[in-house]
User: Which sequence fits this backbone?
């Protein structure tokens, strides 16, 4: 039982490059989330998927797109990376909605130069 | 505006020295308050959920309490392995998303 897995663990991009962060969970959870974590700030929600087939914007969606590929997998795409997107990205999942505890992946540390 | 503030930003204690971390919140209506622990280079790990004022939950050396304005995470006789960043998050009536505090970095010296 791996829980929530994320790939890659580290990535360096040049401004304007694109990339996709992958996330998978094996807990049969309905909801999945993408957060970014920056120094001195709380986790900020980028996008979430309440259930398979649905996605919604969070607090900071600009510059990102997501795909809920199936119940297990939820990917985050940066179409044209900017230095402001340098951050640590976490994927999380839970049974359904914000009332339930969330389970987090190990994170992806992204640097955009 | 819904807001969550954690204090202090950092706390250094000697092993065995008990203390408390604070999470104050201003929300329209509280559905739940969550505490998480985050080790360096890892994702947050769930500790507790509190739903109503007066509620308390315990796990090993940690006890979380809740009032109508704030939550405390009390740590009793801490050990070096309790060193981590502790995050607080609130689920409010007005918001599907969790509102996260910036965290308190706890360092326990042997």
Assistant:
């Amino acid at each position: 039982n791996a829980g929530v897995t994320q790939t890659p663990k580290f990535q360096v991009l040049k401004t304007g490059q694109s990339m996709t962060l992958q996330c998978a969970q094996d807990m049969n959870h309905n909801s999945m989330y993408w957060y970014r974590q920056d120094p001195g700030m709380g986790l900020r929600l980028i996008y979430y998927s309440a259930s398979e087939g649905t996605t919604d914007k969070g607090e900071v969606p600009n510059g990102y797109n997501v795909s809920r590929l199936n119940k297990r997998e939820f990917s985050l795409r940066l179409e044209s990376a900017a230095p402001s997107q340098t951050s640590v990205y976490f994927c999380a999942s839970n049974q359904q909605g914000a009332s339930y505890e969330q389970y987090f992946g190990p994170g992806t540390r992204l640097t955009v130069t | 505006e819904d807001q969550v503030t954690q204090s202090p930003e950092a706390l250094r204690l000697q092993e065995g020295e008990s203390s408390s971390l604070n999470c104050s919140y201003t929300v329209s209506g509280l559905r739940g308050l969550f505490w998480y622990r985050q080790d360096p280079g890892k994702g947050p790990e769930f500790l507790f959920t509190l739903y109503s004022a007066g509620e308390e939950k315990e796990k090993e050396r940690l006890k979380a309490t809740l009032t109508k304005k704030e939550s405390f995470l009390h740590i009793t006789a801490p050990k070096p392995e309790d060193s981590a960043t502790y995050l607080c998050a609130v689920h409010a009536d007005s918001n599907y998303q969790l509102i996260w505090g910036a965290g308190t970095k706890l360092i326990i010296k042997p």
